[in-house]
Amino acid sequence: MSYTLINPTTEEAMETIPALDIDQVDAAIERARVAQREWAGLNPADRASLLRRFADAVDADRENLAQLEVRNSGHPIGNARWEAEHVRNVLEYYAATPERMFGRQIPVAGGLDVTFQEPLGVVGVITPWNFPMTIASWGFAPALASGNAVVLKPAEWTPLTSLRLAELGLDSGLPEGLFQVLTGKGSVVGNRFVTNLTVRKVVFTGSTEVGKQIMSGCADQVKRVTLELGGKSANIVFADADVEKAALTAPSSVFDNSGQDCCARSRILVQRSVFDDFMQHFEKAVGALTVGDPTQSTTDMGPLVSRQHHDAVSAYVDAKTPVAFRGSAPDGPGFWFAPTILTPESRTDRCMTEEIFGPVVAVVPFDDEADAVALANATEFGLSGSIWTRDIARALRVARGVESGNLSVNSHSSVRYNTPFGGFKQSGLGRELGPDAHLAFTETKNVFIPTTEKD
Ligand code: NAP
Ligand code: MG
């Protein structure tokens, strides 16, 4: 079985991709199990060196990976180049892990007590279509670095960069079968990672709905799970902030990747006294966005990923919710959607509570600090957010008060390979990236050796 990819910019048919069945998935998992033994048996310096070679191969292939993402996902080339470089950085960062898999020596009576971080075995990584290669690397790089094998199931719509990364891994000298990309349906390939006993952990990034199914499925085998799910993050602008700067940077915080970003600040909360001022600057900034051909380095925003997703996003712009203004979008073929600014009358309007995952943002006023924090927290999600204020004490109070995993003050940054990333509440479980991520791919083993007759 197979299916055909569609270029979201041109709507032209592209590559045909195999849709694997359960037997093929099981065979791949068995190959991964064998390869993992070999990999874990190598000396740590050799594993580190192979991962560095993998990072170098990605480095040499950055432009090709970026161009693949432009074709497959419609990401603007500037974004796609950053993504390819990020994958290289993630690999390079975790290449230091094999030689630093330290255990502990714990003082106990009568002997030596030490801990080891043992690999889990085979890890299944399931990725979404919005950031195919970066999110894949957050799973496979630390998992491989801790001595595991990885089977990766990319989203059906966007497998090309993942397939290329597996080729680069093999070319770099990773054992055959250690890192395999298995294409096909989530309900078949992804679900098999949940039910196959050899897979000891599932790392899932995607919708909260499917994440809950994965978590309950994994419970059956007490299988380890990391979940990175949806978001409905708040960008909070206080009256004492640099309101103009907050407004001019707001488009990138929600329209980057056409809003198909789990960290999108899709609710902008503005203190009432500066609301109009903010909206004026914001309108100017949205008007200045270049929406169009993703192959051009001057493009800020490309198309949505698919016709189906375009339909889903469109459903949020209806007659019921006031539209303050919209940006531009090309006509003709391609899944284009103009940046759209909604000003809902009710704080419980669905544009305030549901993740739209497109270039649609809701802007609402708030009264004071307590109101802002309560409104920011009035969601089942808790992934990211931004706080704009010149009062450093307020910035810290609000940062501690917002129930979210990744916050930035007077900026919109959220993902760095060297800092932890993940969600509160229904935005996820566990953390990826940063200095500790590799530990989530290990079990802690405690060993006691007596040094006296009596223990
Ligand atoms: P999705 O529908 O949940 O799919 C994610 C992945 O899971 C895809 O590979 C999908 O395969 C697979 N899948 C679907 N059903 C499955 C099942 N029953 N068992 C196992 N795997 C299954 O999510 P999406 O629509 O691709 O992505 C959008 C969502 O991802 C948004 O909610 C967004 O917030 C979230 N996201 C979160 C983060 C984060 O780090 N927190 C990052 C990016 C995206 P198919 O392609 O075959 O459907
Ligand atoms: Mg889906």
Automatic annotation (TrEMBL):
- Which Gene Ontology terms cover its molecular function? oxidoreductase activity, acting on the aldehyde or oxo group of donors, NAD or NADP as acceptor
Q: Which SUPFAM superfamilies match?
A: ALDH-like (SSF53720)
| Pfam family membership, one | Aldedh
Record's keyword terms, sorted: Oxidoreductase
Q: Which InterPro entries match?
A: Ald_DH/histidinol_DH, Ald_DH_C, Ald_DH_CS_CYS, Ald_DH_CS_GLU, Ald_DH_N, Aldehyde_DH_dom
CDD domains in the record: ALDH
- According to the entry, every stretch annotated as the Aldehyde dehydrogenase domain falls at 4-447
The entry sums up its family as follows: Belongs to the aldehyde dehydrogenase family.
Name by which UniProt lists this protein:
Unannotated protein
Native organism: freshwater metagenome
